[in-house]
Amino acid sequence: MRFRFVIFSLILATSFSLTSAQAVLAPDLITQTLDNLLLSPVLSNPAMVLIDESTGEVVYEKNATAQRKPASVMKILSGASALAYLDPTNSFNTRVSSGNEPRSLVIQGSFDPWFSADNDVAIKMHRTSLPRIGYATLQTIKSGNSGSLKNATIYYSDLFSSDISNLKAFWAKRGFRPTMKPVTSQVAETKAATMILESSSPTVLEILNFAILNSDNVLAERLARLASKASGNAFNDSGVAKTFAALLKKLNIDSTGLVVVDGSGLSKENKVTALLVGQLLLSLRKDEKYAALYNALPVSGVSGTLKDRFITTAPTAVGLVHAKTGTLNGTVTLAGYVQSSDREYVFVTLADEIPKGTRASDKARAAIDKLLGRIAAPNIPAEISDGSTPN
Prior knowledge:
CATH superfamily of the largest domain: DD-peptidase/beta-lactamase superfamily
Radius of gyration: 24 Å
Number of helices: 13
CATH class of the largest domain: Alpha Beta
Shape: elongated
Order of helices and strands: HHEEHEEEHEHEHEHEHHHHHEEEH
Strand content: 15-25%
Helix content: 25-40%
Distance between the termini: 39 Å
Structural class: alpha/beta
């Protein structure tokens, strides 16, 4: 970590010296410069928008209203919805109790998104451990039934379906196949006797930070569904779509062009426009309620999914870009904020028509990095370029 900090400091210092040699791009030269850069064949006719954060003015756009695949840029909507509808200080609790009926157990959940199927990961990350729950239930059933695992019933409430499937698989490997009965949280409370174990997750804010910084698909999807449930919509992808549309309406953003199939961005059926995402990012930046989302974004050359980018492709932009990455086969996206001397721009780049394959994706990422490197500059006094080539 210290080594990375030293490298970052050296690169940032280098960027300061380069700024005087390659002057800050003047706003009136942005259109010509970006038009030329976006002609790169490795980006294959991308969509892009650049907005002055201080004025809200769209200073550049290309295919800005065309429907494009967002990939993990969709997580910006999931994160914003989580902050809009969930209490950021809330944690999720899970309790396992013996039942007040013979050969029964009760698992009382709260749709904890932070479950881990790996106990070592759970301990390290302070996650709820499915193996821990699995072993506790096995031991309790055995101890209360002379070592037998037969004819057991488990009542459960408020658990994600994938966590239930993982528990069943864990038990099946150990010869335990209980009758599983879903019940409401109220019924679960009446059927619970002595508590065996309890687990609490980190806060919504901490979970959100991890999901955005590391582009965690499962967490993003679960946070989106929890936000949907809290907003009064269905606890499924259809509800998530309605929740996203309602949030955009609340922020006075036209949701035309938005197609939501999931909250993670994994589906190629998801669609957004660069303008919609840009307007969303602009609104979020101006509202303190969503400051945590900005703070969670990866930083160029420093953290999360951007920690290895810009260092060689655009070193003058290291530390100056806060953005959400996105990748699907044939799609590379990036959306967020870039510091340009005394101003900050909101930017969205959606390249979803590139060739499939890792090589094409790497080239597209490098092209986007270089594009932002042409805009990025630290907030220090600098010469404004007149567009001429220095001698």
